[in-house]
Design a protein that fits this description.
This is Pterin-binding domain-containing protein. The protein is of the alpha/beta class. It has helices at 22-36, 55-61, 81-87, 134-147, 165-174, 186-194, 208-211, 228-240, 258-271, 282-285, 292-306, 323-340, 364-373, 402-410, 420-439; strands at 12-17, 39-44, 70-73, 92-94, 121-126, 151-155, 179-182, 199-203, 217-220, 245-247, 276-277, 279-280, 310-313, 380-384, 387-392, 395-399. Helix 6 links the parallel strand 7 (179-182) and strand 8 (199-203). The two termini are 34 Å apart.
Length: 466
């Protein structure tokens, strides 16, 4: 595990690497030495690829200078640290696997455990649930719970009463799932609560009289979003009859009163500080044609600061299809941020999905030096500084069009090892590299691009020689 250290002028760090990475290590360490003010030397081991170094092998070849106060080795060796620590006479520091991330050793980036605490409840709605069969609803509910939902909202069909609503609710409750029901139909609400639903969305002047008999918590809303008086009358009525209530002034989409609706949430919190509140954030994410992660995060931040401790979301539209997972990540970040009174930065990269938090580019000189160091015909692909690079022994091809680069490779005598398998592999990797350039993402060969919480680990598919 990478641990940071505090560099000082009295320290002399001995960086261990292989032949292939020597140019990049020298360039990176030279910059860091100037930045942090430490002395250093570099030990180039008699091996091409540093990642192949083992603790036993390194002990036989390690010969740090007498002035060295610390040895810095690759994080690949962390699994054998006990053996190294016992044999090396000075402290051993286990850095990152990629030398370009070496700054993390000296605390350039903060290392904080991802926030885990939260106090905002996610209510995930299954829209038009009665149009699906019972098993589909149960399966979908289980999936939403696994993504972070605390309550599953059974969204009724306003045009058709669901006569089997009791069966649906009972099936969900039997799975240990907390259930709310989204309906203005008093009969549906009564049946749902009788079979285990613990929350009814929503109540206004049209059904508040019946809400007294349901015996569960309800969400109070105004008759129309701007009708504050009807909202107040419903709240007073429910309070008078002892009905536990959450307040939702209604979030309106951009273009129909979004800013004013945010003001209503602030005013409602001021006027009713003792009440729980809910915000239906799906009204914005579903009706705003942008990726939902940033929208969800901002809305969760507003909720955290106003003490709104439940949100209603849904995943109907494709650009919001991961909203529950996004809200789950966002609520942890905003809880930490508000509690610690710090900006929500350097806490987690789960919601940095389109672009990466930072890039670690090679300079053109480092790439050229790397190219001259390669002695084998295995292809390396880089995506740096608006260009793609394809490197192997006696090969350095750069450009922006993978098709043109591949044709250039085939026209060279060195391409006699490019069979169908190689071609497929290179095409796959260069497509990833092109996408990384387009979106300003970090590309690392044989590794998946970083899509935040949507990242799927990628098996290493590099062609292996028999």
């Amino acid at each position: 595990m990478l641990r940071t250290i505090q560099p000082c002028p009295e320290h002399h760090y001995y960086f261990v690497t292989g032949k292939l990475a020597e140019p990049m290590v020298r360039e990176t360490v030279d910059r860091l030495a100037k930045q942090f003010g430490f002395a250093y030397s570099i030990g180039v081991m008699p091996i091409t690829v540093a990642a192949l170094i083992t603790p036993k092998w390194l002990i036989r070849h390690l010969n740090p200078p007498s002035i060295a106060t610390h040895v810095v080795v690759s994080g690949h060796l962390d699994t054998g640290h006990n053996e190294l620590d016992s044999q090396v006479q000075i402290p051993v520091i286990y850095g990152p696997n990629d030398c370009r991330e070496m700054a993390a050793v000296f605390g350039e980036t903060r290392s904080i455990d991802p926030p885990t605490d939260y106090d905002i409840q996610i209510i995930a709605e299954i829209n038009h649930a009665p149009r699906q069969d019972l098993q589909s609803v149960v399966s979908r509910a289980a999936q939403l719970v696994s993504c972070g939902a605390n309550v599953i909202d059974f969204g009724c069909d306003p045009s058709n009463r669901c006569l089997q609503i009791g069966d649906y609710i009972a099936a969900l409750v039997d799975q240990g799932i907390s259930v709310s029901v989204d309906t203005f139909d008093s009969w549906e609400a009564a049946e749902a609560t009788r079979h285990g639903a613990s929350l009814v969305l929503s109540v206004n002047s049209s059904n508040r009289d019946q809400a007294v008999d349901w015996g569960v918590e309800v969400v109070a809303i105004p008759d129309t979003p701007c009708d504050k008086k009807s909202f107040e009358k419903t709240i007073d009525f429910l309070s008078k009859h002892g009905v536990t209530t959450r307040l939702d002034p209604i979030l309106e989409p951009i273009g129909t009163g979004f800013a004013n609706s945010l003001l209503r949430y602030t005013e409602t919190r001021r006027d009713y500080p003792e009440h729980e509140m809910m915000m239906g954030i799906g009204n914005l994410t579903e009706l705003t044609e942008v990726d939902s992660a940033g929208v969800n995060f901002l809305l969760l931040g507003i909720c955290q600061e106003l003490g709104i401790r439940s949100v209603l979301t849904t995943e109907v539209i494709n650009w919001a299809r991961s909203s529950v997972r996004e809200c789950d990540a966002a609520r942890r970040l905003v809880h930490y941020s508000v509690k610690k009174r710090v900006p929500p930065k350097h806490l987690s990269h789960d919601l940095v999905m389109l672009r990466d938090a930072r890039l670690h580019p090679y300079t053109k000189q480092a790439i050229e030096s790397l190219a001259t160091s390669i002695r084998d015909n295995n292809y390396r692909i880089l995506a740096e500084n608006d260009s793609l690079y394809l490197l192997a022994a006696n090969v350095l091809i750069s450009g922006s069009d993978p098709f043109e680069m591949f044709q250039e490779l085939l026209d060279r005598p060195e391409s006699d090892n490019v069979d169908a398998g190689h071609a497929f592999y290179l095409g796959y990797e260069m497509a990833k590299a092109s996408l990384a350039l387009q979106l300003a993402k970090q590309y690392n060969q044989d590794q998946s691009l970083d899509w935040g919480l949507l990242t799927e680990p990628e098996n290493r598919h590099r062609i292996r020689r028999k």
